[in-house]
Write a structure and sequence with these properties.
Shape: elongated
Strand content: 15-25%
Largest sheet: 8 strands, mixed
Helix content: 25-40%
Structural class: alpha/beta
Number of helices: 11
Radius of gyration: 34 Å
Length: 686
């Protein structure tokens, strides 16, 4: 385990199949001695919050090893020591075995607490220890990787996250860039297992007793017509309406909470510290953007506060020994989560919040966090099982029912009712007939239909050798076409050296697809009506992946000799793809082209302003090549054949969604609001 991988799989996270991959679950365990002073305990809280942020699942109860217990097999113990760090290459003044004042040490220690390896943070005093842990949590281990550049020559490298002054803000996909006054010089040993950090440049200071934000003072005076001290339901706790800040009301990407212990804390009760570590881990786990540190002095301006206090709490009722009270209140300066009682009671309350308390609201849409692997999941699974049992006993109510004819049957109807009459009227038995058949069907079905086409043409008097049927899947037509035509062409030309595949680039008004036979209202969609095309210019390159590797395997040519080039938009009637086989000098030995059967449609019928897209569809086309016409082909019949997926999507938008909306409006009336979701216990689409 190297320090630069500390917050990744194989470090404090469960190792995965690759060095940097895995399930992102924790394997770290904080070892409590029962003698942690206030700042040592708060240092553990900072590390736990960062660990939770880096994970995707985990059981908070497994994070803590109480005094007298041993780490679980396979765990990585985490130990924080103030005043007596482990022996190492960097020693302080004579007689002091740990780091010098103003410095901290982060090291991987083999055999720590009986484990294969563990993590130890040490500093001269607990204040420096907190600064070291807060720095590591806020900056992360990328700083240690950067420091490796100077490890060989013994120099210390200044390390700080990108950005200007301000709080460290870890960001997920929807967060903001990190910025922090966390500059520190780091010296990493050559093996990457130990680092010495100079703490002088770190501006943050730990929470001080008596210097809190006085949450009780937040109650003085109401605001916006609300009571000065408004109780909030606990089911909102792990949502943007509770402790999770959000920039859009959905994603928990602005989690900015401060933690204020009881002023009387000098040495942590193990139960209270364990509960606070679990709570910090859960907070990080639930967030996609979190402000660190949680326990710094002067952080009381943040909109969320966790306040630990002795006594009976705001209600004034006395609490039995070992019991805690949880109260979530909106006060003038923000939301305060009060945890009151004696130390053991506060610890139990925090542990319950971190493990057994599940919000009744759905997890925010788009959150990167799965549910906890803890009692939260067990309770939810039990509730889900009971709901399904209740549903199984009920007769389901059918809200909408329709059937889509199989694609093969729809093709047969078009072939016999429209294509064959057109052939009889326009072709003679001596003509060469070419049939282009594209359906969203397996190869076996396409081959069966091709056989039916040949037999029906033979019944009309056409010679079998004069009937050619090309069959392609409707999905990714270009990919399958290239696999059909390129390998035989390369095999037929001994000098074949390179394959060049050209694809039509989509412009703002590009076609490469027909609009006829689309859904109702599709005529006129697309270029010229002011709505954008949502497809990328390389729309027709995307479905070819990974045709270069497949063609290389089938032709024997190296993959680098199969090249792709964009060609200008070709309109509705031009080719979508053109392929050439060239010799070593670039002379074209063979070429062919294909126009994809596609149509344009609105991305969403209910929101036409969003734009339009190209979708591949089925096709039946018949061409004749008369002997005396110079070999040129004449189109006898052509019709797009919507696939089953297209028809489903068209009907789902045009009929199913409006039907569901009507049912909800009739059932819920004025109670139909977004926050009331889910509206159905089960909603099945067959």
């Amino acid at each position: 385990m190297k320090l630069e991988d500390l917050f990744g799989p194989g470090g404090l996270l469960v190792p995965g199949p690759g060095r940097r991959t895995g399930a992102r679950r924790p394997r770290a365990q904080f070892l409590l001695s029962g003698e942690e002073d206030r700042w040592t305990g708060l240092a553990m809280v900072e590390l736990a919050a960062r660990l939770g942020y880096e994970c995707e699942a985990g059981n908070p109860e497994r994070l803590v090893v109480r005094p007298g217990q041993r780490p679980a097999p396979g765990a990585v113990p985490v130990v924080l020591e103030a005043g007596s760090g482990g022996a190492g290459p960097w020693s302080g003044p004579a007689g002091f075995p740990g780091p010098a004042p103003g410095r901290g040490r982060v090291e991987v220690v083999p055999g720590l607490a009986g484990a294969d390896a563990g993590l130890r943070l040490s500093a001269a005093d607990s204040r420096d220890l907190w600064k070291l842990a807060a720095w590591l949590a806020a900056v992360g281990t990328g700083a240690l990787g950067a420091a490796a550049a100077g490890a060989g020559d013994g120099t210390a490298n200044p390390v700080e996250p990108a950005g200007g002054p301000g709080q460290a803000f870890l960001s997920g996909p929807t967060g903001r860039p990190a910025a922090s006054p966390w500059q520190a010089a780091v010296r990493l040993d050559p093996a990457g297992h130990a680092a010495e950090v100079a703490l002088y440049g770190i501006e943050a200071e730990p929470w001080q007793p008596g210097a809190g934000s006085d949450p009780g003072g937040r109650c003085a005076g109401g605001q916006d017509g609300r009571p000065a001290d408004e109780p909030l339901p606990l089911e909102h706790l792990w949502t943007p309406r509770g402790l999770l800040g959000s920039s859009d009301g959905l994603h928990p990407d602005r989690v900015a909470l401060s933690v204020e212990p009881d002023d009387a804390v000098r040495t942590w009760d193990p139960d209270e510290l364990a509960g606070l570590i679990m709570f910090a881990f859960r907070l990080g786990l639930e967030s996609t953007g979190i402000a660190l540190p949680l326990t710094a002095a002067g952080a009381g301006h943040r909109p969320f506060l966790l306040k630990l206090a002795a006594g009976s709490g705001l209600s004034g009722d006395a609490l039995p020994a070992g019991c805690g009270r949880i109260e979530l209140r909106r006060q003038r300066a923000g939301v305060v989560l009060w945890i009151t009682g004696d130390p053991a009671g506060r610890g139990r309350a925090l542990q319950w919040l971190a493990t057994a308390h599940a919000s009744e609201a759905l997890r925010p849409a788009g959150s990167r966090r799965p549910a906890l692997d803890s009692p939260v999941v067990a309770l939810e699974r039990e509730n889900a099982r009971r709901r399904w049992e209740a549903v199984a006993r009920e007769e389901p109510r059918i809200l909408f029912e329709d059937a889509i004819a199989p694609e093969a049957e729809r093709f047969r109807a078009v072939w016999h009712e429209r294509a064959l009459p057109a052939i009889r009227a326009s072709c003679r038995p001596g003509d060469e007939i070419r049939v282009d058949l594209r359906l969203d069907q397996p190869d076996a079905v396409l081959e069966e239909l091709a056989g039916e086409v040949r037999r029906s043409l033979a019944d009309l008097g056409f010679a079998p050798e004069g009937v050619h049927v090309r069959r392609l899947p409707a999905f990714r037509q270009g990919f399958h076409w290239l696999l059909q035509v390129v390998p035989p062409a390369v095999a037929a030309h001994a000098g074949a050296h390179q394959v060049v595949v050209e694809f039509a680039r989509l412009g703002p008004a590009a076609g490469n697809g027909r609009r006829r036979d689309g859904p109702p209202g599709s005529e006129g969609d697309g270029p010229g009506d002011g709505t954008p095309c949502l497809d990328l210019p390389i729309r027709w390159l995307q479905p070819l992946y990974p045709v270069d590797d497949v063609l290389a395997a089938r032709t024997g040519l190296p993959a680098e000799r199969i090249v792709f080039r964009a060609m200008e938009p070709a309109g509705d009637d031009g080719p979508t793809y053109r392929v050439m086989v060239a010799d070593r000098d670039g002379r074209v030995l063979w070429q062919d082209s294909l126009r994809v059967a596609a149509r344009r449609r609105r991305y969403q019928d209910a929101n036409p302003q969003l734009g339009w897209v190209h979708i591949e569809t089925g096709l039946c086309r018949v061409e004749r090549a008369a002997g005396g016409d110079g070999g040129r082909c004449q189109v006898v019949f052509e019709q797009l054949l919507p696939t089953g997926a297209e028809i489903f999507w068209d009907r789902y938008q045009a009929q199913v969604l409006p039907a569901l909306a009507r049912v909800l409006e009739e059932t819920l009336g004025p109670d139909l609001r977004a926050e009331g979701q889910p509206f159905f216990l089960t909603l099945e689409v067959d």
